[in-house]
Amino acid sequence: MNRPDPARVLLADDHALVRQGVRLILDSEPDLTVVAEAGDGAEAVARARRGGIDLAVLDIAMPRTTGLQAARELSRLLPDLPLLILTMYDNEQYFFEALKAGAGGYVLKSVADRDLVEACRAALRGEPFIYPGAETALIRGYLDRVERGGPLPGRVVTEREEEVLKLVAEGHTSKEIADLLTISPKTVERHRANILQKLGLRDRLELTRYAIRVGLIEP
């Protein structure tokens, strides 16, 4: 009886040593094989678009285009391609952003040797994967915030930054935004720089696309 061909994995991480380690983990499994590597998110998107990929594993923190940006782009271009986020950040904000970006799982690099294979198989089956311990941490964090009356859940940008983000995306100048929010143009520019840095975006166009994706403005 012939065994089905192994699932073809695209691995994106800007550190060659990390890619080498992850490749060793995946290639040791009979049902998984790494067929392509990328050093940043833009390269990952370009490679995935060429086809021949069954699963993309993306690091969050990469130059040029982050894993989250790549996940959003791939979700739009290739909605049937399963995505996994591989990260060193045990951070619920990144976790929720990854889910919003279209990823089906979130795996910590620190325990990749334990969790990554299971996460890959779950993603290929169309099932979500949350690293062990995350459910408890997320529920506890939720309940703690309820008890303290804090925001639910933690957001990547502050409320003020979200206001600035929306107005920038709508095409307002810094002076117009300053007048609307009763702050100085210099403060607007500082908020804008913080937003771009936090979200891993480069310019107003990417910021506008992000605002559309998260529902801040209509396309």
UniProtKB/TrEMBL annotation:
SMART domains: HTH_LUXR (SM00421), REC (SM00448). GO terms for biological process: phosphorelay signal transduction system; regulation of DNA-templated transcription. The modification 4-aspartylphosphate is found at residue 59. The lineage of its organism: Bacteria, Bacillati, Actinomycetota, Actinomycetes, Kitasatosporales. InterPro entries: CheY-like_superfamily, NreC/VraR/RcsB-like_REC, Sig_transdc_resp-reg_C-effctor, Sig_transdc_resp-reg_receiver, Tscrpt_reg_LuxR_C, WalR-like. Gene3D superfamilies: 3.40.50.2300. Residues 8-124 form the Response regulatory domain. Residues 150-215 form the HTH luxR-type domain. One of its GO terms (molecular function) is DNA binding. Keywords: DNA-binding, Phosphoprotein, Transcription, Transcription regulation. It holds the Pfam family GerE. CDD domains: LuxR_C_like, REC_NarL-like. This is DNA-binding response regulator.
